[in-house]
Amino acid sequence: MDKIGEYIRRIEIDSLWSGQKHIVWELDRKVNILSGVNGVGKSTILNKVILRLLQVVKDSCTDKPDVKLTYEPVDAVTVRFDVVRSFDRPLVHSNLLEKLADDRVATELDWQLYLLQRRFLDYQVNVGNRMIAMLTSGDPEAKAKAQEAAQARVQFQDMVDELFSETGKKIVRSSNEIQLEQFGEVLSPYKLSSGEKQMLVILLTVLVEDRQPYVLFMDEPEISLHVEWQQRLITLIRQLNPNVQIILTTHSPAMIMNGWMDAVTEVTDITQ
């Protein structure tokens, strides 16, 4: 079985566009923010790396790929990763819409939430099984360990409640699915604003990775988020999973205002 890495140490791209621009990017274990003017290649770099990772997963990579990734540990051949897309465009794939059991799914963020609902259910089952194993192990510290296993979900719920507090929305904690309550009315997540859906997608994506080491790619995650949420986003992600490596592109100064200025890399600085 291929060895799974904890994070990406280095990205090398032979040619960003049509044989031009060689990219070498040394990455930080925690947070990596790619910046630059429009058209310089930020999204292209992210997309090439994601495509390379997908090729490894499908075992269809070429002998001499134009994207080389170095992992930690160095003998790993891939990493766990997630991709969050922030643009809330209408879904246009009629075949996909016909297959969906939920006709409330109308946009790309809705689709991500739909998929995350299923992952959230699996996550809860896995955590529940771990808690049962701990409580039946005979370990005198089993109760404390079981409570710790459930802590991330509670932390996620507290985060959402606090972020959405100005509009009176709260997570329905008794539900196995993601539902919200607003002034006594139960809401589906598909009824939220684009910014609320986007924040929910990001935090849910982080939660269901169950605090394991993995890489989170985000292309301009500030889209639809107001400034305060932009400032807090990276910190919230790191609190929910301290083992995540974040790789993102941004145009927003607010994204780095909470102590992440040293994590910024200009595309021109990694171009040879």
UniProtKB/TrEMBL annotation:
Residues 28-271 form the AAA+ ATPase domain. It comes from Paraprevotella xylaniphila YIT 11841. Pfam families: AAA_21 (PF13304). One of its GO terms (molecular function) is ATP binding. This is RecF/RecN/SMC protein. It comes from the Bacteria. InterPro entries: AAA+_ATPase, ATPase_AAA_core, Bact_Antivir_Def_Nuclease, P-loop_NTPase.
